[in-house]
Specification:
2 copies of one chain form a homodimer.
Chain A lengths: L2 E5 L8 H14 L4 E5 L5 H5 L11 H5 L11 E2 L5 E4 L5 H8 L8 H10 L5 E5 L6 H9 L2 E7 L2 H5 L1 H14 L5 E8 L6 H11 L6 E5 L4 H9 L3 H4 L4 H17 L2
Parallel strand pairs in A: 1-5, 1-6, 2-4, 2-5, 6-7, 7-8
Antiparallel strand pairs in A: 3-4
Helix pairs in contact in A: 1-12, 5-6
Bound molecules: adenosine-5'-triphosphate (ATP) (2 copies) and magnesium ion (MG) (2 copies).
Chain lengths: 257, 257
């Protein structure tokens, strides 16, 4: 059975896409088969895995809007062995208004994704846009777990309560078993007072699990998207690769809980 | 006549809110009167100017949804002389779906803002969420100009085309005179190859103006939101304050064009 993990935070620029790509790389390296699903109209996950969003014939938009029933027709292999991709393209920016009055609009992704991935993949990572609209809600309804990157910065801390409220609402009716896999501290700089203060505050955000692994800001993680491959492949001995490998081990351990 | 400037980019975390607050601080210091309008449900502009979003009685949401006709009833003074605020609160996250079928839904903000600010303020800065939905569209229709922060990073460069398309569509029908005031390069690090490469690419994004001023990543700019005041007040001699003062001078110069 595939573990479906949504990577979400309404706050922009906290490292959702970077985490999806890097974690996928670390899991693939361990021999797991991974499907990445790009639910962001910016298609950063698609670009970061080396796929040209303007050249894909069909994307996740056609699956959500019902013009393409089968996932199989949109999923592509990537340059990294073990990682497949359901890409996004510009059409996805019109999808929310296309599906807003569809019956069961929040469950479209779940109904198509779950039957298709269960005997094909070990992990499915869904990259969400920086919003709490229907694309993110579809991802949270389809997912078993949600991983929440939180920057060790003032504004990022404030963004958590909106997402937490939406997760609570989804648990009540659409996805009773959705659990918060954990909060991942990103852009952490232990040399600054701001970094250390924010880390302490994140640990008190509620009784949610905070991963032991913290992700620092490094030049190589910023450069990785240009290569179209995860940091674990592009700069295998770098600090960023090591951190995301540690995260992958924690994610695997928490799956056995 | 007030100059209304929207600060927008669909890409998350590029420094939209930080630019709105810091530029407001630099303009207020020069004696201009500034209104900041928070169109992001995360209410980061509101928090960054020292106002508790959960404690405001009325916010921009009530103005957009028509329950509160007058801007005057939501605008608050801030701790910084010369800067007033039309705050956001959690209600704003429901506003897009509330106004989606209203007549003239794209022009609600313009019709209420323009008559109210013209003899009260010199500048109006509108902070947008990291989306291209109705809240951002309302801001772009109400604005004379749009300032686009672009991180000197791979994903941020890719985000520009979506916004450019929307601006083109708005110019055709809803706001013929909307002009791109300029692209502001943020998180610029001249010591890295990535930084220098991305800066060169931003300069070739089209025939748009790129501000001479570049904003570097500094600890004091990350700390400023905790103080509830702009960097120009909180750390007046810092590099961040100097950079945003230089930006203010460029913004004023380009207004006389
Ligand atoms: N640990 C890191 N070190 C250096 N750069 C990073 C790191 N993590 C992310 N970045 C860079 O910072 C920017 C923001 O990260 P990313 O795009 O992954 O965030 P996001 O949350 O997906 O953003 P959005 O909200 O727009 O979807 C990107 O340009 C990315 O390359
Ligand atoms: N020049 C800078 N130096 C250091 N930190 C910065 C700088 N500019 C912004 N920041 C910090 O980086 C984070 C992202 O900036 P900010 O929130 O202003 O971006 P945004 O584009 O408004 O994000 P969103 O897309 O979520 O609205 C914030 O935590 C902010 O405090
Ligand atoms: Mg992203
Ligand atoms: Mg912001």
């Amino acid at each position: 059975v595939a573990r479906i993990i949504a990577i979400s935070n309404q706050k922009g620029g906290v490292g959702k896409t970077t985490t999806a790509i890097s974690l996928a790389g670390a899991l693939a390296e361990l021999g797991f088969s991974v499907l990445c699903v790009d639910m962001d109209p910016q298609a950063n996950l698609t670009a970061g895995l080396g796929v040209d969003a303007s050249a894909v014939g069909r994307s996740i938009a056609s699956v959500l809007e019902g013009t393409d029933q089968a996932f199989a027709s949109v999923v592509l292999p990537t340059e990294t062995p073990g990682i497949d991709l359901a890409p996004a393209d510009l059409d996805l920016s019109a999808t929310e208004s296309q599906i807003i009055s569809a019956i069961g609009r929040e469950q479209i992704l779940r109904d198509l994704l779950r039957p298709w991935v269960d005997d094909r993949y070990d992990f499915v990572l869904i990259d969400c846009p920086p919003t709490l609209g229907l694309l993110t809600i579809n991802a949270l309804v389809a997912a078993d777990e949600v991983l929440i990157p939180v920057q060790a910065q003032f504004f990022s801390l404030k963004g958590f309560s909106g997402l937490n409220r939406v997760i609570g609402q989804i648990r009540k009716s659409l996805n009773r078993d959705l659990r918060i896999l954990g909060l991942l501290v990103t852009f952490y700089d232990p040399r600054t007072l701001l970094g250390r203060d924010m880390l302490a505050e994140i640990r008190e955000l509620g009784d949610h699990h905070v991963f032991e692994t913290q992700i620092r800001q490094t030049v190589k993680l910023g450069e990785a998207p240009l290569t179209g491959r995860p940091i674990t492949a592009h700069a295998s001995t770098s600090e960023g690769a090591r951190a995301y490998r540690a995260l992958a081990r924690e994610v695997i351990e928490r799956g056995q809980a």
